[in-house]
Amino acid sequence: MKQVGSRGIFSIGSRLQRLKRDSNRWSIFTLAIILFIALPIISIAIKLCDGPGETWGHVVDHLLLDYIGNSLFLVFFCGILVLLLGVSSAWFVARYEFPFRKQMEWLLILPLAIPSYIVAYTYAGIFDYGGTLDLILRVLDLEFIRVDIMNKTGLAFILGISLFPYVYLSARAFFINQANNLLEASTMLGVGEVKTFFKLMLPLARPAIIAGLILVLMEVLNDYGAAKYYGVNTFTTGIFRSWFSLEEPDTAVYLSALLIVIVFALILFEKWQRRNVEVSSSKSNNHRIHRKRGSKGMQVSILCFVLIPVALGFFIPVLQLIYWTFLTAGKVFDMDFIMLSVQSFGIAIISALITVFFAVLLIYFAKWSMLSFFKNIAKMGILGYAIPGAVIAIGVMIPTLAFDKWLIHFLDDWFNIHTGLLINGTLVALVYAYSVRFLAVAYNPIESTSLKVHSTIPDSSKVLGVGNLKTFFKIEFPLIKAGIFSALILVFIDVLKELPLTLILKPFHINTMAVKAYQYASDEMVMEAAIPSLFIIFTAAIPVIFLNKLLIRK
Amino acid sequence: MLKINSLSKSFDRGKTFALKDVSFELEKANVCAIVGESGSGKTTLVRLISGLERPDHGSIELDGKTISSLRKIIPPEKRKIGLVFQEYALFPHLTILENILYGVSKQKNKKERAKEVLELVGLTSLEKRYPHQLSGGQQQRVALARALAPNPSLLILDEPFSNLDAMLRMQLRNQVFEIIKKTGVTALFVTHDTQDALSVADEILILQEGEVIQKDGAANLYTKPNSVYVASLFGNTIQLTNTLQEAFQCPLNIDCCHAIRNENFNINTECEYISHATVIKKTFLGETVQLLLKLDNGEQLSVVTKEKNVAERIRIGFDSKDVLEF
């Protein structure tokens, strides 16, 4: 009898009955937010059905191979460079004691504070005729060596030195927190350091390293400013070209769709390579890694070695910018610049608040929905971070334009009011796009702090007769404040640095620091780009240092 | 009164059941202990009754009102059930007083109620402190006070003493159940410790792999367990196999399964069924000694006795009234 009973419990009929019983308003709200976040991607998918534009054939015949070839080239060589720089510096910082090791720990993250297009401008300036290198060599009375950096090899180098910290961070976290037991076992077996590293540590750290690498590759595919400045045709510059120069939105949509496919392939690959991670990083209570102290000579050579990526990715670009600032400060720093900083900070603050708001809603609505599969659905909302900014911008363009057109007709027909575009080309569309792109940036720190609050805490509030919303404000919010705060800061910085999406969607009369720097650089006034660039870098650097502490503890 | 009717819950769409077809009733003002090993579905049962989890099948009635069925679910905040969690789950950013008053609705006289409950658990002097400033036992009593403050129709305690050390545990167990008896609230009490259950519960419900296998009063469960499993939960039990029966020359009904509790073996005294045995090994356990015996028909048997000085050859036996039959 029990057999029959238990089969009946999972018949379609009673499943539907339970679905009806357990779906509540929170389930509907969760779905609504997901749809809102996914709208740009859905729009691109729908727009694909319209067929390719007139120039698509031309793009396929003459440009697509170039786009694919260049993007692959960048992915490959930049990938190798970030692995070399990131993994080696992570290993040295984690495993060895040397002078200034603590400082190196966070200095190695600082390149993330500089957007890669700004690194690109500075290196172009250094290697230019009459550039910094030329000046220095002339002072030393040496022959000028001409290095042409403004090509795809140079671009791979630039992206590599500015993005390697992603790999450094994930590899270091593994070495510090999860490697010690095996490392000691290997030492006890009498295996040397070099063999231990290549035979044991590298294979074990692989999933962590690749996870960092995938983040780098997404940033490579997202880059617009550096590629544009160096004259390299990539998918992103292709999307810009077909949208602005060729005025061929359908082609831009097709390119975007292709790029989305590539990005999702990367994500799937990352998930696949992680499938056995649970087994390899066993739950054993690993002590934090025990550091080795080598001879004085070895310590100094390690210090010099890890200084290379820091110098390339941070000190050299910043010094170049400071030098340029001295040359141009009088010209750039005026009332307009103060207005610009107010606008830029204002947009970043508003976007951070709204993005964090959506992230909190998504996390908690999915919790409050009694349908367990909603938690997985909510996770889909954070995929926006993987999608290049230019693609999201196109995806936001399509539905907002359509909605505006409808609204204009509607207002005209029914109320006889004549208006222009109300959403497209305004801050609303821009902030919307930011929150789609950076939802994950807000979601992750909030989720991880909310997981630290044991589920019995909100549960006991509910059992004591207090509903979901009130429980959130009285119990959960005070306990996850720190996570919300770091989410706000992280989104704020990302918005401040963001370029391609902002270029496409920003209102005509409004500028951000990033856009201003880009405009100076494209108007052959790259020196003037220094002040807005330094502004971005110093704003971003403070929390990067602060973040280092968080990341080690994790 | 709590009435549970054929409650089922699966976390993997019916492949395995955390709880399978569980039905029982609990009279008002009674204390019922739910006993089971970890993974037997105790916590799932608690979460279904309190509404934190949703059942796949079955219904729950509290004081004549259906609070959970296939059609309708009353959310946890409207069930008037008090729940004391294993890890207490006190709100870390609120004082003891704020914690206790959290679930008390506005219209009532809050201050008076707080005083009442604080007196009940004996923590009046600590009301301004924060949870982390309290000892484990004090936190436990705050959790109890917080659950009792809104006058719940049913109080559930989920493994309330498992985070405490043995000494404190006994002391607190008696305190807590004195308080519960004083308030006269109907209580469900989840534990894996049969000592806890035997000492305080009016009734005990045994769960095994998500199914109820026996529900009875404490004394009955001990003397008339309905399976070897239940018998062994309440103390060391030895199954009387055919060869053992031969050794003791006790003819028992072959259609049934028989067992005897370790404590009912008598050494060197007159009994109905007797066998001679050689002591192979003595293990000193403190208060008792464990003996590994070789009976005369070659069968080995391990018993625990308080007798410290036993000879190498002994006589061992038991009486028919102590034989458990299933």
Concise structural overview:
The complex is a heterodimer of chains A (554) and B (326). In chain A, helix 17 packs antiparallel against helix 22 and helix 24 crosses helix 25.
Which descriptors apply to this entry?
heterodimer; A: about 550 residues; mainly alpha; MetI-like fold; B: about 325 residues; alpha+beta; 5-stranded antiparallel sheet; 18 strands
Structure write-up:
The complex is a heterodimer of chains A (554) and B (326). Helix content of chain A is 78%, strand content 1%. Chain A is mainly α and 554 residues long. In chain A, strands 1-2 form a two-stranded parallel sheet. By secondary structure, chain B is α+β, with helices and mostly antiparallel strands. Chain B is 26% helix and 31% strand. Chain B contains 9 helices and 18 strands. Chain B has a 6-stranded mixed β-sheet with strand order 6-7-8-3-9-10, with helices on both faces. In chain B, helix 3 crosses helix 4. In chain B, 40% of the residues are buried. The mean pLDDT of chain B is 87. The interface between A and B is medium-sized, with 29 and 40 residues.
